[in-house]
Amino acid sequence: MKNTFLLLLFTLVSACSAPLEIPEPGIAVSEYKIGIDDQLFINVWKNPDISLNALVRPDGMISVPLIGDIQAASLSSEVLAENITKALSKYIRTPEVTVILTASQSANYLNRLRITGAINAPQSRPYQRGMTVLDLVLEAGSLTDFADGDATILYRKTADGIKRYSIQLDQIIKKGDISTNYELQPADILIIPESLF
Questions:
Q1: Does domain 111-197 fall into CATH 3.40.50.720?
Q2: Is the alpha carbon torsion for 27, 28, 29, 30 positive or negative?
Q3: Main-chain phi, psi angles of 39, to 5 degrees
Q4: pLDDT tens digits, one per residue of 67-98
Q5: Running DSSP on this structure, what letter comes out for residue 94?
Q6: Domain-by-domain residue ranges, the chain?
Q7: Which long-range contacts (CB under 8 A, 24 or more apart) does 154-163 make?
Q8: CA 141, CA 139: separation in Å to the nearest integer?
Q9: Residue 2: is its pLDDT beyond 60?
Q10: Where are the alpha helices (DSSP H) in 73-165?
Q11: 54 CB contacts (<8 Å, ≥6 apart)?
Q12: CA–CA separation, 116 vs 17, rounded Å?
C-alpha cells in the first residue's frame, strides 16, 4: 500500500512539474490534411476529360486518368495538386491542377472534441467554432463529487507537438472567473482528474 501511494505521489509530482501554457486567442488551426473517405474534385484546367470527382479509398489513394493511383491521404490539397501536376507533366504540357475538398468525412472523427475523467457523461462530440471549455463541460453534464476541477488539463495538438493548458474549472463554474475558459480548437481533449482527498 505504501509503495502504491509513493508511486502515485511521484507520478502526480512529475505530472505537475511539466510546464503549462496559456493558449493565445485565435490560434490558427493547422492546415487540413485529406483523409480516408474524403471526396475531392480534381480540376485539370483546359482538360475536362481528365478532371474528376474522387473518393479517397481506404488505402489512402485516388485514381487519376493517365497517371493511375496516387497517394492523397495525409496530404494537404496543395501538396496533392503539386504531386498530380508533376505526374501529369509527362503527358500534358504545363498542366494546372486544383484540388478541392467537396466532402470531409475524415474530419468528422479527427476534429472531434473529447472530455473525459471525473465527469458524469464523458463524450466525444463534433467540433463547433466558438465553443469554449465551459460549453463542452455543460454538454457533458456535471462533474463527479470527486472531481478536482481546478486541476483540469486541456490537451491541444499543435505544429510543435502536444501542448498542455491548465484550466481552473472550479473557478469558472463556481466563481464566474472565465480567465481560463479558452475557446476550443478541433481535436482538443479536456481531462478532469479526481482529487486525491
A1: no
A2: negative
A3: -110, 135
A4: 999 999 989 999 999 999 999 999 999 999 99
A5: S
A6: 39-107, 111-197
A7: 154/23, 154/182, 154/184, 154/188, 154/189, 154/190, 155/188, 155/189, 155/190, 155/191, 156/23, 156/27, 156/185, 156/187, 156/188, 156/189, 157/30, 157/187, 158/27, 158/30, 159/30, 163/21, 163/23
A8: 6
A9: no
A10: 77-88, 107-110, 133-139
A11: 39, 40, 41, 42, 62, 63, 64, 72
A12: 22
Domain spanning 39-107, CATH architecture: 2-Layer Sandwich (3.30)
* CB-neighbour burial class of residue 14 (10 A; exposed 0-12, middle 13-18, buried 19+): exposed
> Which amino acid does the sequence have at 115?
I
Residue with cell 495525409: 74
Please answer whether residues 36 and 108 qualify as being in contact, where contact means their C-beta atoms are separated by less than 8 angstroms: no
Strand pairing report for 123-125 and 61-64:
unpaired
User: What is the total residue count of the chain?
Assistant: 197
Q: Please return the burial class of 158, using the count of CB atoms within 10 Å of its CB with bins 0-12, 13-18 and 19+.
A: middle
Closest CA to 51 of 105, 103, 88: 88
pTM above 0.90, yes or no: no
